[in-house]
Amino acid sequence: MSTKENSNKKPFSRRKFLRRSAFVVGGSIVAGYLGCTPTRRYLAQTMENLDFPSLVSSMKPDFWFQVMTDNTILFNSPKVEMGQGVITGLTMLAAEELEIPLDRIRVEHANTGSGIVDAMGTGGSNSTLSLYVPVREVAATMREMLKTAAADHWGVSIDNVHAENGEVSYGDKKMTYAEITAVTKKWKTPKKPKLKPESAFKYVGKEVKRIDLKEKVMGTALFTIDHERNGLLHAVSLECPYLNGSIKSIDVSEAAKMQDVVKVVQEDDLVAVVAINRYAAEMAVGKIKVEWIIPKAWQQQEIIDLVTVGKGKRVNVQHIGNAHSMVSKTDGKVFEQSYRTPIAAHAQMETYGSLAQVEKDEISVVIGSQAAGMIQGQVATAMGVSKSKVDVHIPFIGGGFGRKMLHNNAAKAARLSKIMGAPVKLIPTREQEFQNSVYRPNTHHVLKALLNEQGEVEAITHDQATPDMVFKELGGNVGLSLLGADWLSAGHGASILYNIKNRSTSIWNSVVPYPASIWRSVGIFPNTFAIESFMNDLAHHTQQDPLEMRLKLLKGGDELNQRMSKVLEKLKTQSAWTTKPKPGVGRGLAICNDRKTIAAAAIEVAIVEGQIKVLKVTEVVDCGKAINPAGIRQQVEGAIMMGISSCLYEEITIKDGKISASNYHEYPLATLNDVPEIEVVILENAPEPFGIGEPPLGPVAPAIAGAVLNLTGKSPRSLPIRLAAG
Amino acid sequence: MKIDFTVNKKPVSVDVDPNMPLLWVVRDELFLKATKYGCGKALCGACSLHVDGEVYRSCSMPVSYAAGKEVTTLEGLSTETQIHPIQQAWIEEEVPQCGYCQPGFMMAAAKLIQEIPNPTDEDIKSSISNICRCGTHPRIIKAIKRAAAIQQASKI
C-alpha cells in the first residue's frame, strides 16, 4: 500500500516487486494451504484489496528508455495501449523524471525480445498504480546516468550538474542527452535515484491529450491486420460453431479448387484455407463441406439453470458476524431478492487475429494482445521451441476489454506459416469472433437482509453463482479444484462493503459448456448490478431515499466507507438528487468499489415509445491521485456508454448447441442514438493513482435499473432490461 | 479482371476478382490501411469510405462497382497543406480511444457535414449508425458539431 512513502528509501522497488509478485508466482507454494475455508476467505479478501502486482521482468533503465540521436527518448512501454490511455499516463510519469518535454518521448510497446513485457499482461485496471513508482524510478535512474556521464565528461562534480529540457548543464556548459549518449562508453548506474516531490510535477495532474491521438485520427496507427510481410499469405481457419463440437466428416475439394487459393491445410485440429488474398481465403472456407459432431444441443434455459445459487461448490469469501444464520429466520422480516446477468460478448471492433512468420526455428508473431508474455509461451509450446525463439510484437490493440488474452490464434498462425514456408496473417471473421470466442459468464445472485423493527439492516448475505472466469484460462497450480470457486475475478466485488454488523458472501462455482472469461471489470459488473439493485430494492421496500439509506449504512465505517460517503455526497449535489425529477422521468443511483477506485452514478431515464431512454448520467469517481484528468474523463464516458449498452441491449444466448449471435445485427450495441447528457466529476481522496479503465462501468446498469424502479415501481432484476418482462 | 479507378485522386489499376470487396482492394492491393475490417456485413461501418462522394461500407461493395469512379479513403481526406475539419475537430475533442472504428466514423461524418453544414444532435444521431465499442459516441457528436463550425468559419 505505502509505495509512495517508501519510494525514496531504496534504489529500486525491485525487492518490493518480487515480494508482491510472489503472491502469484508463488501460487504453487500457498496453494497447499488453501484447503480450509478460513484460509481461502483470508486470501480472497487479501486479493480483493491487493495492489495487483506487475511482473515486469527487468528494471534496467536501458530496456525501458533509449536516447535517440535526434534527442528524443524511446520508451518501451511494458503495458499496452488498447484505448485505455495507459501509454499517455506512463509517459507523463516518465517525463517528470527524465526532464524532457512530453512530446519528445516516443512510445512503443515493449516486445518480448526487449525484455520488459509484463508477464501479468495488461488488465485489471492496475497498470498505472503498479507502475506509478517504478516508471519514475527507472526514469530518474536514466536521468542520473546521463548527469553522471556528463559530469565525468566535463571532469566536474555531479553536485552542480542539472538536467532540464532534454539537456544536462553545468554553469555555461551544455550537452543534449543525445550528445552525452554519443560520447559515453561506460555508464555508471547511480544507487539512489531521487524522485522529485509531487509538488514539482509538470505534467501529472494536468489535462494532457493522449499521445496516440494524431496517429489514430490521421489513420496511420497500425493494428495487427495492417501489418505486411514480403510474400505474405492470408488464411482463414475453419472453426466449429457448436460448443465443444468437432469434425465428423469434411470435404475440402471445392475449396481447394477456388481461384487464388494456395492450399487447404488439414493437420490435426487445424483446418484453414491459405490464399494469396483475404477474400479468396474467406470465400473458400465457406465452400468447405463439413458435418459436425455436436456433443450436446444446449438450449438457453439449460445454461441459465446451470448457473443457480445452491448448485456446485460453495466458497465463503466474507464472514463478518453471524449473517448467515440470522437471515435464515422465517419470521417475515427477511427481505430477499434474486438477480441475473446474461452471457456477454466483448464485441470489440478488432477481431483477435495474428500474423506469424516462422524462419528456421525463429518465430515472430504480431498480435494485438493484452498478454504478450503468455502468448510467447503458448506459441513456443505449440511449435516445440524455447520461449527465447519466439518474439511477440504488440501493435495498437483495437479494443481489449479482457478479450485479448489467451484465447487467440497465434499458435495456429505459426503452424500455418511453418507449413507454408511463408508469413501468414490469420484474422478471424466477425462470425468467428462472436461464435468461437470467450464470454462474460451469466450469473445468478441471491441477496437477503434481516430488518429490525425500525426497518434497519441487521444482517445481509449475498450468494453469487458464477462460472470461473480466470483459473481455467490461466492453468497452473492454483486450480479451481483447490480454490473452490473463482473469487479472484468472477467473484470480484461480491463482498458487501456497507458497514453492516453481520455480513456474509459466498460464491457458488457453476460449470458451463461455453468458455467463460474475463470481461471489462470482471466481477464488478454482475456483482454491482446485483448488490446495488438490491440496495435500491431495499430502499424502495423500506420507503427510504436510496442515497440517504446508503449514507446511513456507510456511517462509522472504515476508510473505504468514508471515501464512498464523500463520493455519494458529491453525487447528491452534482446530480441535484434532492430535487424532484420532471414528470415521466425516473432517477436511480449505484456505487461500487473496484480495487480502491470508487465510482458512483446517478441516472435519469424516461420511457419513450416503450423503450428505456437514458437521459442523463452524472458519475463521480474517486480514483485517488488523478494522473491525467482528460484520460480519466474519456474512460468514464466510455464506461457509461458500455454500461448503457450492456444494461439495455446485450445478451448472448445459446440455441441448439451454439452461440445464437453471429454478427452485430444479432448482438446490438449502444449507438450514437443512446448518448445521454453526461457529467463526470473527479475526486482525489487518496494519494496514489488507482485504476480507471473498469470501475466506472460498475454503477451504470444498477443505476438505470434503479431509475426504472423509481419511474415504474417495478424493479428490473435481470439484464438486459426488458420492460415487458420486468 | 483489370479494374481502373482513382483512389485519393490518384489513378489506380488492379487485377483482381471483380467480386473482391473494395475493402480488401484498398487495404491489401493498394496498401491503404486506414479503412478497417470490422464485421464483413456492412453492419459496423469500420470500413466506410467514399465512392463518387457517397459513403459506402466497402466490406460489402464489390470492387467492380468502383470501376471508373473516384474513391476516397481516410488517407485522402486531408490535403498536404490543409487538415480536414473533421480530423481537426477529432483531435480537438480528443475522440479516439482504441481508434479502430474511427476512420469509418470520420468518413461518415465528413459526408454528413457536407450534406448538413450545421447538424443538430438529432441529425447526427439519425444519420450515422456506425459502431464503437470504447464508447467514444459522446465525443463523436461534439466533434461533428465542432467540425461543422470549423467548416463554416473557413468558408467565410
Alpha plus pi helix count of chain A: 23
The best one-word shape of chain B is globular
Mean pLDDT of chain A, nearest integer? 89
> Which oligomeric form is depicted?
heterodimer
Query: How is the main sheet of chain B built?
Result: 5 strands, mixed
Tell me roughly what share of residues is in helical segments of chain B: 25-40%
How many whole angstroms does the radius of gyration of chain A measure?
27 Å
Strand order of the largest sheet of chain A: 9-10-7-17-14-15-16
Distance between the termini of chain A: 43 Å
What is the alpha-carbon Rg of chain B in Å?
Answer: 15 Å
Query: What's the count of strands of chain B?
Result: 5
* Count, helices of chain B: 5
Contiguous low-pLDDT stretches of chain A (5 residues minimum) are: 1-39, 50-55
* Helix/strand structural class of chain B: alpha+beta
Concise description?
The complex is a heterodimer of chains A (726) and B (156). Chain A has 726 residues and is an alpha+beta fold. Helices cover 32% and strands 22% of the residues of chain A.
Please describe the topology of this protein:
The complex is a heterodimer of chains A (726) and B (156).
Chain A: H1 3-6, H2 14-25, H3 27-31, H4 37-49, H5 61-64, E1 65-67, E2 73-77, H6 86-98, E3 105-109, H7 127-154, E4 162-164, E5 167-170, E6 173-176, H8 177-183, H9 213-218, E7 233-237, E8 246-251, H10 253-256, E9 261-267, E10 270-275, H11 278-286, E11 289-293, H12 300-306, E12 313-320, H13 323-326, E13 334-341, E14 354-359, E15 362-367, H14 372-383, E16 390-393, H15 410-420, E17 424-426, H16 430-435, E18 443-451, E19 457-467, H17 471-474, H18 480-483, E20 502-510, H19 524-541, H20 546-554, H21 559-574, E21 586-594, E22 597-608, E23 611-622, H22 629-648, E24 654-655, E25 658-659, E26 677-683, H23 700-712
Parallel strand pairs in A: 2-3, 7-17, 15-16, 19-20, 23-26
Antiparallel strand pairs in A: 1-2, 4-5, 5-6, 7-10, 8-11, 9-10, 12-20, 13-18, 14-15, 14-17, 18-19, 21-22, 22-23, 24-25
Helix pairs in contact in A: 6-7, 7-8, 14-15, 19-23, 20-21, 22-23
Chain B: E1 2-7, E2 10-15, H1 22-29, E3 48-51, E4 54-57, E5 70-72, H2 85-92, H3 102-115, H4 121-127, H5 137-155
